[in-house]
Amino acid sequence: MFISFDQITPGARLWVYQASRALTTAEASAIETAIRPALESWAAHGHPLLASAQVVNNRFLLLAVDEGAGLPSGCSIDSSVHTVQAIGQQLSRDGEPVDFMDRSATYLAADGSVQALPLPAIKAAVADGTLTPDTPVFNTLIKTKADYLSQWQVPAQSTWLKRYFFQTAVR
């Protein structure tokens, strides 16, 4: 069963799907429209799951399930991943689908835009000052809606990126 993201409990389990490119407002709306029917019928072993989804920052798809109302199974989680991948295929531009499994480091630039750094570019971004210990990064490793509300944007030095600042300081 689908409920709005605002209504799902703070303890709801959360998955963050990061798009490989910025999404337009129309695409973000289309994603929310496309995923709703899947969440309306999402179930684990025949038991309906209470779920929600929301696109934030025109880059991230948040998928939440209230585990107090029913636990997702491996098969139901796989089903949600396939749904997200299918939506990415539908958003294809110039033959390139949106990859919602992107693992770039994403941060909030000084101009307010969301920027992504492929993993091999992180060291250079730290060296040239694009990415600093205080740069707000999007914490895609959060596990619950409560985490999203309190830890969505955190300084880079508070994340897995901290190792890159230490390496730069030592040299």
Give the gist of this structure.
By secondary structure, the chain is an alpha+beta fold. It contains five helices and nine strands.
Q: Can you walk me through this structure?
A:
Helix content is 32%, strand content 21%. With 171 residues, it is of the alpha+beta class. The strands form four sheets. It has a three-stranded antiparallel β-sheet with strand order 1-5-4, with helices on one face. Helix 1 packs antiparallel against helix 2. The chain is globular. This is ABC transporter ATPase.
Structural class: alpha+beta
* Number of beta strands: 9
Largest sheet: 3 strands, antiparallel
Low-confidence runs = none
Reported by name, the CATH topology of the largest domain is Alpha-Beta Plaits
Question: Order of strands across the biggest sheet?
Answer: 1-5-4
Number of domains: 2
Q: Percentage of helical residues?
A: 25-40%
SS summary, helix count: 5
So what's the CATH class of the largest domain? Alpha Beta
Distance between the termini: 53 Å
Beta-strand content:
15-25%
In CATH, the architecture of the largest domain is: 2-Layer Sandwich
> Mean pLDDT score, rounded?
92
Q: What's the alpha carbon Rg, rounded to whole Å?
A: 17 Å
Topology pattern, helix = H, strand = E: EHEEEEHEEHEHEH
Q: What would the principal axes of the Cα set say about the shape?
A: globular
Please supply descriptive tags for the structure shown above.
two-stranded antiparallel sheet, 171 residues, 2 domains, Alpha-Beta Plaits, three-stranded antiparallel beta sheet, alpha+beta
